[in-house]
Target: Probable N-acetyl-gamma-glutamyl-phosphate reductase, chloroplastic
Amino acid sequence: MSTASLSSTFLDRGCFLKSEERLSSLAKQNGNKKYFGRSNTLPFKSLRVSNSKPGQEARVALLGASGYTGAEIIRLLTNHPFFGITVMTADRNAGKSIESVFPHFVTQKDLPTLVSTSDANFSDVDAVFCCLPHGTTQEIIKGLPRRLKIVDLSADFRLRDISEYEEWYGQPHRAPNLQEEAVYGLTEIYREKVRYARLVANPGCYPTSIQLPLIPLIKTNLIEHGNIIIDSKSGVSGAGRGAKVSNLYTELTEGIMSYGVTKHRHVPEIEQGLSDAACSKVTVSFTPHLMPMSRGMQSTIYVQMASGVTIEDLYHQLKVSYENEEFVKLLDKGIVPRTHDVRGSNYCYVNVFPDRIRGRAIIISVIDNLVKGASGQALQNLNIMMGFPERTGLEYLPLFP
Model:
């Protein structure tokens, strides 16, 4: 493959995303091959603090504090030097202390008493984490003061097409104007849009683990857009804290359970992000599984490389894309990512391997579904929105064993 055609394959996309996305198209040189650079305009370590006063605490409300993602946000914020929780809601546990719901918070004596969402007072609040179930979030966020910065962890604002939302979630979208305003918060890809957003739709856990490795490769035409096969496995906490027979210990232990086969609600979110990167419709085969573990997520992705492209090209593109990122790490060649190695942290570990089938590659990506897949990425986004250094409150090393 000639240098000219190789450069054209890697760089001449014409459009990298639809018109609403303004991403950097800087290239980096590696020998005679050019690679698409990081999609961010600022190096991670030079983030600006522009929207807040140094040393001033931002007051945070947490809606839906009694779920797993709410508890994870509390854990992360207890060591955040700038954010303080002033309001916590949990309708079924209103009037209770948080340690009565989560005993591991017994040492946190300064947290507010849980209140119902209807009784929450937002006069002393600067920003909101919304950890409520999909379908209930739209009306609540619609009623919040416009001055508040909001990160929504539900699925309610992730899909730009509200008819697609109705198709996959079985109910009409009740806040279409807010949907138009919402910014999709896959931080490493859309950092600059997140920076100036008022409402951020935090990505789902599966889409985070899948899009982070695939988007740089699709943007640069290193892989074919068709025949992408994704096998993902998640800890049971990804199903939420509600009592379900299928999530009982005896139902899940010593086994693996596929679910949402051909119809998981994260499919349109995954395809939306990949289609934006390709500037054309991308359809994937995606099957999720529940594993007998409390947290963790692995996505194993099978792709067809473009003509003339090698595993080395894929590896180098991922290296260029994420070499300055704090939370996405390309492992040394040959090292297999493991969920144990990111447990409790905001990291995503990635690597790429040659398949036995000629021309195909296997990409493995691991995250903690409750941190990088939910609450950690939400905090990462709010840090950016409020003008604080992005890593603040997230510098936890993974827990092992």
Notes: The two ends are 46 Å apart (CA to CA).
